[in-house]
Request: fold
Amino acid sequence: MNFEQQLNRAITRRTLLGQSARGFGSVALASLLGGGLHGATIGQGLGTHGALPALHFAPKAKRIIYLFMSGAPSHIDLFDNKPKLKELTGEELPKSVRGDQRITGMTSGQSKLLLVGPAYDFKRYGQCGAEITEMMPHIGSIADDIAIVRSMHTDPINHDPAVTFLLTGNQQPGRPTLGAWMAYGLGSVNKNLPEYVVLLSGGGGQPLLARYWGNGFLPSKYQGVQFRSTGDPVLYVSNPEGIDPATRRELLDGVQQLNRLQLEAVGDPEISTRIDAYEMAFRMQTSVPELMDISQEPQSVLDMYGAQPGKASFANNCLLARRLAERDVRFVQLYHRDWDHHGNLPNELKRQCGICDQGSAALVKDLKQRGLLDETLVIWGGEFGRTAYSQGAISKDSFGRDHHPRCYSIWMAGGGIKPGITLGKTDDFGYNLAEDGVHAHDFQATVLHLMGVDHKQLTFRFQGRDFRLTDVSGKVVEKLLA
Reply:
């Protein structure tokens, strides 16, 4: 039988119905059972809706909202006050402090590495007395609800490998991101929305690559789905003019039948992913427009965030993150650019604080007042820190800072995090770790732990090896846990 005869036989009505009957029965059974075979809902037991048959221990958090500050905010200017550094402004970084550590090519050619103190004053906030820049009074107002980690450290010294390392556990592209691992291991509670949603804001700085929310070698159904703040919320999900939902459903049914035939014939898991993606897209035509319409929110809530319906902004995305959390989306990641301050740092830092401060704090407050904070892990931070010395000349109103992976600051809240604490210390220059270092792999292990997952046991076999997010290291940071 030649290829044309095989094709004609494969697409006859009788063959179609005969070969797909088993698939139709399975689909009907799954619909009747309502997903119950995938395990109990988290909170009612230790089952999951994903690849893990059960959680390894009781979770502290059900979901994650990760506010990723792309470009690396300066810890010295935001969360790690160094009075001595301010006194030493204009003096050279002691060789004993730098040691033999490498620096980037952007400052390695400077004749002197001149120290420069924080651009703005620090204030103490809350009953805990946390020191936070005066440029972030809103985050200061939630000081008693957050844990500041001043001792984060990582391996890469440049942006792309550092973002890749923090989110995938390896500097080289090709591995799944943290959100993809969550989607794979735990699955989705809300069948009308993706497990992993990405929101973007900011107009410049370091580019944001789609692989930062990619699935790596996991099936592509686990990659992050980007939602847009203006226009169509998700590209290509809306029906074109002249196509109504009934017509779309009829067309989709035909495509799905053909896809199931091909899946039975070749067994390619990516066909299964495509089947799921088509069904998710159909459901999202109803669920997403309602979700993205923040004009439904009371004016008091919009004012708290500084959100403006119809505009693309970090504040709007923070409000959308809360709405996604209410709908049990597993992992929401907000990427905000423009934190890469190699020059003009005082002015640029002030501008970015003005953009990010209010919305970040409002998210925590809003989750708390709705009873969602205890089960939602909120993370705020970038890929590394900035140097204690200036990149380029220092003037009264301007200087810059280079990349610094040796130590930096992030903060976390909710979902099993001990509130109102500051963990870790750096030296008087904010250059080296002094106490309680938290490596990128420790951070990853802790995040998984809070979701009820042992980082050593969430693995995926690829090319003959079991891979995991934390690669071959990482320990849970017990001092962060409530």
Q: What stands out?
A: Residues 5-44 have pLDDT under 50 and may be disordered. The chain has one domain: 40-480. Residues 40-480 form one domain.
